[in-house]
Amino acid sequence: MTTSTTSVKKAKRRLPAWAVIFWLLVWQIAAMWVDDPIFLASPLAALKRLGQLIMVPAFWQSILFSLGHILLGFVLSALLAVALAAFSYRLRIVRELLSPVMAAVKAIPVASFVILVLLWVPSRQLSIIISILIGFPIIYSNVLTGLDSTDPKLIEMAKVFRVPFIKQLRAIYLYEVLPFLRSGLSIAIGLCWKSGVAAEVIGVPKGSIGEKLYQSKIYLETADLFCWTLVIVLLSITCEKLLKLLLGHIEKEAAKCWKQ
């Protein structure tokens, strides 16, 4: 029963190949009907351009620049969110103090953040700061919800039997919070990529993916625009898959601690 349920869940997560091919055909037919590569480049033109760009060192330099900055912002946002969620769980005053900040960060548009941040930091650090600001409230809310959902009876029992705090952390808190953390991180990493690249398009830091997107728009290179968009999607999906593998391993270790 468990195996069949797991297989159904995996099937739901997969993108059907026929659906992907269908929409690629729609895109190709639309491009042929428009018959103007400036307004709509075909998927074949985008793939051809991608094959050309792969051979250029600047292509990989741009990927490494944006990948490094956005992932750094994501990791910092996760560390900050987990730490502050733990403080908020323990201290009500911290929770109340952070609540208006969380509401403001969630409500303010990314473009407003970008313009404000550009007044204080160089454009090269822009995607790091924006990734932190976008990822932080999502991870914070999920971790705090997970901590609030921790069974108080388990904590009380651990105190009665004088279980060391480190073991409580691994066997109770980590086990209970991990599903919430996993959900928050999965959502946050995708949003960090979207907001980080959007920030680069506005700030135009030299050598970034955002700069390449901006240049594609300025010079009306639609094939380049689709090509770089495809690269962003692939990078985002790859990061999310690797993150899920890492968290899956951590969940297995937490389950072992729970059984012990």
Q: Could you give a quick summary of the protein structure above?
A:
The protein is mostly helical. It has helices at 2-13, 17-34, 43-54, 57-90, 92-107, 110-118, 126-148, 152-160, 165-203, 209-218, 222-259. The protein has one domain (43-259): MetI-like fold (Orthogonal Bundle).
Protein topology:
Layout (H helix, E strand, L loop, with lengths): L1 H12 L3 H18 L8 H12 L2 H34 L1 H16 L2 H9 L7 H23 L3 H9 L4 H39 L5 H10 L3 H38 L1
Describe the structure.
The chain has 260 residues and is an all-alpha fold. The chain has one domain (43-259): Orthogonal Bundle (MetI-like fold). Helix content is 85%, strand content 0%. It contains eleven helices and no strands. Helix 4 (57-90) packs across helix 9 and helix 9 (165-203) packs parallel to helix 10 (209-218). The protein is elongated and about 70 Å long. The relative contact order is 0.12.
